[in-house]
């Protein structure tokens, strides 16, 4: 392995750093914008971990878990819903979408990347935890 490649499919070096910085910026901006909604912070904390419910399909198998996790841990879905909410004048959705993007941002900053289908700990930002990636599908 060298500074620009990884044998496990993870980004390394400066690219990984930029992705983590991007996550921190998205988190900070989402929190800042949420603070201007006038809604209670309790709502923010109640819904902050909701995207992690997307991990439940891991109970079936890693492939289903990765697909579900990745769907709910990319910016594409909340931003598409935000565009819909703005275009069709449904601003009530926006605070929840800010909570969602804050969740994704902090995950990226902490190194929780998008999942590969072989194991929960195998992500685009590296391997989570100790040890190596183990294929749990048999």
Summarize the structure.
By secondary structure, the protein is an all-alpha fold. The protein is built from five helices and two strands. It has one domain.
Give a description of the structure.
The protein is mainly α and 138 residues long. It has one domain (26-127). The protein is 51% helix and 3% strand. The chain is built from 5 helices and 2 strands. It has helices at residues 13-35, 41-47, 62-72, 76-87, 94-110, and strands at 122-123, 126-127. The chain has a two-stranded antiparallel ribbon with strand order 1-2. Helix 1 (13-35) runs antiparallel to helix 5 and helix 4 packs antiparallel against helix 5 (94-110). The longest helix has 23 residues, at 13-35. The radius of gyration is 16 Å and the shape is globular. The mean pLDDT is 90.
Major sheet size, sense and barrel closure: 2 strands, antiparallel
**Structural class by secondary-structure content:** mainly alpha
Radius of gyration using CA atoms only:
16 Å
Report the strand count. 2
Unreliable stretches: none
Structural descriptors:
138 residues; mainly alpha; two-stranded antiparallel sheet; 5 helices; 3% strand; globular
Topology:
Layout: H1 13-35, H2 41-47, H3 62-72, H4 76-87, H5 94-110, E1 122-123, E2 126-127
Antiparallel strand pairs: 1-2
Helix pairs in contact: 1-5, 4-5
